[in-house]
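DM from R.C. (forwarded with permission)

"hey, sorry to bug you on a friday — could you get me a structure for this? deadline for the figure draft is monday and I only need the backbone to look sensible"
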Amino acid sequence: MPVNRWWRHDPRERYWLEITNREDIGRNLLAPQVNDRGEEYWSYTLVREVRPGDLVLHWDKNHGPGVVGYSHVRGEAIASTITWQSRGTYGRQRRASGPEPAWEAPLSGYRRLKKPVTQARLREMEPSLRALRDHLAETVEGPLYFPFALSHTRPLRAAQGYLTKLPLALVEALPELLELRQTAISEPYESEASSPVPASPRKPAQPSGYGRQHDAKRRRAVERYAMDLVLDHYRSLGYEVEDVGDRSPWDITVRRGAIETHIEVKGSTTTREAIDLTEGEVRHAEGTPTCLIVIDQIELDDELRCRGGRWREWTDWVPRRDELVATAYRYPLPAGGQGGRSSR
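My reply, with the result:
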């Protein structure tokens, strides 16, 4: 049966849930190409549907049970092999197989959640999760591949399967996944925290040009405020300071005597558990000692005046390549584009 790719129309639907008892969580997604009866099984076939940059949460049966962390997909799924022991009633009646055809998708950047999403926590939310699932079922024709089994006779539990589709609306319903949501966005933005209300999977309307200009002004005001806080702080400590952000891949240089420090500054009105970095910023921090300072929770009024904020800093900061998640691409245009009307 072909996979019901209901999420393909919405680029924000980038989330999956691996349900496993493996000890090497975060290494890859790996599942047989067929089940014990020699048939394609949706939960195995879904491994072929993940795309580079997607986020995979991991449900650990051994320690919890619950969602303990997440990884990002770093490559397309390929044909591979697996030595597999099914866990169901039928599977326990046979021995582990020898190497057999499998689907494998490489993962990278595994991070444990600061606060795991336990099964007990999800059971407390069962009525709202049931409403979320039912709302999604009304808008999607065909299977949802929902990650949790919900019934009126048994409490919530993980679905019977290996890989499931984790709807965006479910991710937004869990405050514990704020870091995950911020890691997945494809464009920097400042918005109020999402409320746990089932969201429509349809693509949202495009914002107006005025709205984008206003948001850009807000971002610049916040960035300028964060920069000024850092500049003033180091001046008060007796450092010589220089704003170099308009010509260098870092923001501020501070000097005291022969010692020079480079500082990367990020400001935000929201609570930030993930930040946006350019390739230049990453390369610079890999090669030169850099201090990262993040000032979030900044208050911004309608007149673009800022105050407050939470200051966090990481000295000797070096971003790990395997933890970077691609949220945008630069695409060289192919030759042969058709000519058309010129705009004036």
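R.C.: lifesaver. The chain has two domains: 15-184, 209-323.
me: no worries. DSSP finds seven helices and 16 strands in the chain.
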